[in-house]
Amino acid sequence: DAxxxxxxxxxxxxxxxxxxPCNHSTISGNEYVYWYRQIHSQGPQYIIHGLKNNxxxxxASLIITEDRKSSTLILPHATLRDTAxxxxxxxxxxTGGFKTIFGAGTRLFVKA
Amino acid sequence: GxxxxxxxxxVICKSGTSVKIECRSLDFQATTMFWYRQFPKQSLMLMATSxxxxxxxxxxxxxxxxxxxxxxxxxxxTLTVTSAHPEDSSFYICSAPPGTTNExxxxxxxxxxxxx
Lengths: 112, 116
Description:
heterodimer, A: mainly beta, five-stranded mixed beta sheet, four-stranded antiparallel beta sheet, globular, B: mainly beta, seven-stranded mixed beta sheet, 11 strands, about 50% strand
């Protein structure tokens, strides 16, 4: 089972920041938080990942709380093309290594 | 960045036939690849972990004789859906990590399988 919980859906106005929350209360000290998104009928796309420090790249920023039990993905200026399902993932240990298990994700609608 | 190529992107087949889907890592070697299945309006479900040079590891409830996985080289994994039935119609996606323990996954573009 996925180790994260996210809201089912969110709306955001075009040009505004989209803040997508994620809870991962059972995360272990050495586990990373990964974010991916999936646009309809395509393979998921990696966005960002982090351990405990806030991270920023050309796509987004990731804010992780000090206790690491939750995080927020920030798309600073959302566009219509950012409409997608966003997945927050903490990998699950399995036989022979880690597995990336997807939860239900958050469906983000960016509106004009 | 690293690229994972998946082929074909779409396939339609008759019930009872077998379909092979290829997943290639184009600019890196992948000792491990992952196969997912996705039904409409649902999330991705991990089917199996493909291991180069050894048997694949299947998730609970996934029939290994139905979904044959071969990972014969460091850049190629194949998923064969044997004796396909309409209920096997789904979006199949492969992914691979480029190497280090905490690296992200790169995903193929997916294969839409329709079994008539």
